[in-house]
């Protein structure tokens, strides 16, 4: 059970250096000495053609976890979210609903804003592409591209997918049999959406001129696109060549969008419009020094990698703006290994999931079981397994056992015990294995978190808790408390220190994923907020900051109700 943690041990400098080279060379959140104190993470802006689903929730929680992880390292953070509200698909959907497009968009935009709140996402900026500030930003961005000679007018023909709001080349489409109708139709290979042949005059962006620069950017920045499967996918697209990109639509066909500056007969292509949002929320066009831009991490789903890892950096290069530092493209969610869809009736409502399990437990499940490279599979049974086995069975059980009034844990003594236990010669042989893991856990988990692999990091944390539960069972503090001799009293507090040190470190580390539950645990331990930073995940840290005030603020309620039984 614990061999993984042993193999990942980083107590020796040479081992730590090897692991740093083996894993991502650039941490997700760089130290202040390596960069700036500011940290900017973006969510993709969600398309307002339907209610939020569990995939939107996962993206939101993953981005929020990254933002909170940066908070723990003392960064001044910004996280953007919002809704993408223009395009032919929205125009047609509003017409079918018999609503004004803005009214239609507002209805769904409000639902996505509700999702941010329900998810406890610490969003600092929520943008709608129908905002006046965004219109100004897109118009300015377009004019910069024109001035720099990267936009021209010409005839464009190609296969167009209304659902994707994108043109595809001949090599990017294929014929597929529609199982419902029995009719063969042409679809985009990448998305599976039907395409139609369109020929029209519009504005084009000289995307082809950026092929070599984009290849150089990806190859010289191995962490710019993660995971590696997505990076290789992007390199494959680039090496096969790029065609110039159609960046407008005739207004006769698409009225719902931002007019092309100086040409009211054309509408700005929805993806150019949408991508600029990441600059809009940071005050673009800037009159002085950039504040947070470019983004440190852009969280996107794997289905929109092309737009974020090819079109977006090319547009930024053309505008003379800096490129994002990392694009983290996560996988999707399935149910029973099948793609979720309304027609199959297997779409998960995130609001109902939050109501059923609680926001922190469902956040935990999504991050623990969600995929970065590979799709995650959603199952109510699996949610309950994680809840009962990990949260209630490991974390909740250990905290409840050790904080039982019957055991008389004296956390005010733990700073002294932690100092005493730094020297291995004073450590009881029964404590050696757990002590070793507690010393190593901060670095091993950080290696995973720094890549965005929070699920793997959580796995290591719960391996540690499993060992801590075994340690307390083996040392039987409930028997030690019965003895009144001084040796038994001292041994009791040392045993409880090791168990609650595991709880403290775990609670500190899981704050980005389960912010509310983690804080409740730390309050029960009398750990103040000032002692719950990432640096406090080191062995023995945190207890020295316990004060009389923090002892008085400990909750009166029993921690045994931290993860109550669910029906």
Write the layout of secondary structure elements.
Elements: H1 3-7, H2 13-22, E1 38-42, E2 46-47, H3 54-72, E3 76-84, H4 88-97, H5 101-118, E4 125-128, H6 132-147, E5 151-161, E6 166-168, E7 173-177, E8 184-188, E9 196-205, H7 211-220, E10 225-226, H8 228-239, E11 245-246, E12 248-250, E13 259-260, E14 263-268, H9 270-275, H10 277-280, E15 297-301, H11 305-319, E16 327-330, E17 333-335, E18 338-339, H12 350-357, H13 359-369, E19 376-377, H14 380-402, H15 414-420, H16 432-449, H17 454-475, H18 477-480, H19 486-509, H20 515-524, H21 548-552
Parallel strand pairs: 1-3, 1-15, 2-3, 3-4, 10-16, 15-16, 17-19
Antiparallel strand pairs: 5-6, 5-9, 7-8, 9-11, 12-14, 13-14, 17-18
Helix pairs in contact: 7-8, 12-13, 13-14, 14-17, 14-19, 16-17, 16-19, 17-19, 19-20
Quickly describe the structure:
Belongs to the class-I aminoacyl-tRNA synthetase family. With 567 residues, this protein is an alpha/beta fold. The protein is 45% helix and 15% strand.
What name goes with the CATH superfamily of the largest domain? HUPs
CATH architecture of the largest domain: 3-Layer(aba) Sandwich
Strand tally:
19
The number of helical runs is: 21
Describe the structure.
This protein is of the alpha/beta class and 567 residues long. A hairpin with a 2-residue loop joins strand 17 and strand 18. 45% of the residues lie in helices and 15% in strands. The chain folds into two domains: 290 residues, Rossmann fold; 166 residues, Isoleucyl-tRNA Synthetase, Domain 1 (Orthogonal Bundle). The chain is built from 21 helices and 19 strands. It is elongated, with a radius of gyration of 27 Å. The longest helix is centred in the C-terminal third of the chain and has 24 residues. Strands 1, 2, 3, 4, 10, 15 and 16 form a seven-stranded parallel β-sheet that branches. It has a four-stranded antiparallel β-sheet with strand order 6-5-9-11, with helices on one face. A three-stranded antiparallel β-sheet has the order 12-14-13.
């Amino acid at each position: 059970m614990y061999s993984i943690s042993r193999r990942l041990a980083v107590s020796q400098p040479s081992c730590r250096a090897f692991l740093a080279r083996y894993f991502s060379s650039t941490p997700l959140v760089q130290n202040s000495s390596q960069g700036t104190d500011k940290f900017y993470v973006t969510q993709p802006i969600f398309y307002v053609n339907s209610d939020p689903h569990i995939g939107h929730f996962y993206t939101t929680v993953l981005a929020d976890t990254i933002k909170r992880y940066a908070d723990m390292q003392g960064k001044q953070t910004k996280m953007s979210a919002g809704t993408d509200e223009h395009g032919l698909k929205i125009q047609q959907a509003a017409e079918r609903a018999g609503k004004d497009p803005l009214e239609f968009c507002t209805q769904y935009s409000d639902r996505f804003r509700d999702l941010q709140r329900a998810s406890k996402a610490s969003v600092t900026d929520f943008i709608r592409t129908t905002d006046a500030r965004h219109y100004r930003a897109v118009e300015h961005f377009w004019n910069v591209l024109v001035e720099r000679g990267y936009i021209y007018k010409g005839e464009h023909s190609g296969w167009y997918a209304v659902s994707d709001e994108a043109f595809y080349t001949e090599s990017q489409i294929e014929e597929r049999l529609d199982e419902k109708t029995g009719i063969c139709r042409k679809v985009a290979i990448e998305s599976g959406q039907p395409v139609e042949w369109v020929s029209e005059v519009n504005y084009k962006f000289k995307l082809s001129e950026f092929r070599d620069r984009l290849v150089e950017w990806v190859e010289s920045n191995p962490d710019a696109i993660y995971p590696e499967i997505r990076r290789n996918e992007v390199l494959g697209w680039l090496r096969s060549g790029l065609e110039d990109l159609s960046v407008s639509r005739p207004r006769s066909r698409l009225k719902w969008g931002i007019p092309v500056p100086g040409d009211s007969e054309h509408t700005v292509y929805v993806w150019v419009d949408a991508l600029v949002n990441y600059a809009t929320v940071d005050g673009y066009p800037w009159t002085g020094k950039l504040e947070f831009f470019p983004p440190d991490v852009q969280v996107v789903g794997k289905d929109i990698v092309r737009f974020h890892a090819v079109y977006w950096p090319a547009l930024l290069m053309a505008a003379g703006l800096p490129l994002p530092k990392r694009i983290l493209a996560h996988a999707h969610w399935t149910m029973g290994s099948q793609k979720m869809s309304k027609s199959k009736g297997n779409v998960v409502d995130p609001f109902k999931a939050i109501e059923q399990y609680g926001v922190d437990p469902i956040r935990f499940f999504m991050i623990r079981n969600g995929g970065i490279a590979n799709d995650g599979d959603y199952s109510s049974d699996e949610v309950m397994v994680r809840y009962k086995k990990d949260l209630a069975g490991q974390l909740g059980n250990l905290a409840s056992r050790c904080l039982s009034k019957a055991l008389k844990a004296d956390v005010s003594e733990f700073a002294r015990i932690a100092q005493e236990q730094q020297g291995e010669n004073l450590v009881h042989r029964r404590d050696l294995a757990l002590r070793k893991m507690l010393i190593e856990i901060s670095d091993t988990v950080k290696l995973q978190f720094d890549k965005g692999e929070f699920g793997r990091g959580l796995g290591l944390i719960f391996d540690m808790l499993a060992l801590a539960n075994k340690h307390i069972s083996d040392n039987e503090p409930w028997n030690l408390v019965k003895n009144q001799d001084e040796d038994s009293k001292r041994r009791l507090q040392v045993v409880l220190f090791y168990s609650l040190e595991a709880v403290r470190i775990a609670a500190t580390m899981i704050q980005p994923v389960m912010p509310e539950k983690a804080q409740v645990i730390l309050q029960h331990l009398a750990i103040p907020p000032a002692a719950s930073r990432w640096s406090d995940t080191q062995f023995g840290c945190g207890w020295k900051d316990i004060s009389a005030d923090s002892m008085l603020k400990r909750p009166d309620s029993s921690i045994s109700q931290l993860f109550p039984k669910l029906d």
